[in-house]
Recover the amino acids of this structure.
């Protein structure tokens, strides 16, 4: 995996995808293949694999040191086969074209100790790209914003008579970064919640709460 990561990092400069963007290593995904004969249903029959056939190294775009958190946006994925050859390079980064001193709107972080909520500065690119963190990066307040957004989803389920049996936050999933919609980006927080709908059916949902817009 270290070899594939090195090849992927070199390819960033080779194809110029890091010339106008700040990128950071995000994760590695492995592709596998396995095989067997029609008689493989017999436990005594050999099944070959699984074998790693491709390694994909993913990088995440940063804006002023914070990651883009919108799924499918702000990523560079470089795939390398077992021979060390590049098989694909996929880029979904966004160009930041201009900066502004103020966001279009500020969603205060709820105070937890008597202080007022946070404001902040903002930047813009091919649209508006806020870059500054709110003055009150209070995680308890941010969790409150996320809880309010989750309650809105629960209300919609109640109205539709689809209330889940239970739900839990996926540990370690809370993060702060830039949520891009069209040509506008907002500073936001998000976390992943797993919902149990019964009958063995579970689904995960990203909950996103804007901090600056």
């Amino acid at each position: 995996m270290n070899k594939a990561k090195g090849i992927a990092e070199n390819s960033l400069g080779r194809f110029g995808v890091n010339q106008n963007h700040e990128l950071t290593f995000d994760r590695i995904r492995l592709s596998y293949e396995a095989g067997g004969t029609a008689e493989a249903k017999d436990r005594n029959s050999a099944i070959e694999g699984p074998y790693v056939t491709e390694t994909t190294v993913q990088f995440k775009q940063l804006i002023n040191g914070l990651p883009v958190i919108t799924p499918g946006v702000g990523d560079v994925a470089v795939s390398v086969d077992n021979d060390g050859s590049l098989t694909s390079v996929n880029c979904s980064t966004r160009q930041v074209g201009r900066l502004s001193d103020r966001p279009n709107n500020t969603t205060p972080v709820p105070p937890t100790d008597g202080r007022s909520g946070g404001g902040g500065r903002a930047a813009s690119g091919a649209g508006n790209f806020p870059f500054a963190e709110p003055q009150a990066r209070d995680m308890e307040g941010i969790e409150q914003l996320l809880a309010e957004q989750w309650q809105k989803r629960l209300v919609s389920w109640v109205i539709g008579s689809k209330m889940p049996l239970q739900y839990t936050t996926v540990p370690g999933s809370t993060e702060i970064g830039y949520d891009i919609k069209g040509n506008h980006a907002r500073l936001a927080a998000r976390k992943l919640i797993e919902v149990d709908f019964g009958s063995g059916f579970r689904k995960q949902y990203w909950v996103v709460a804007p901090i600056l817009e």
In short: The mean pLDDT is 80. The longest helix spans residues 139-159. The longest strand covers residues 47-63. Strands lie at 22-36, 47-63, 66-67, 75-81, 86-91, 166-169, 175-181, 184-198, 201-212.
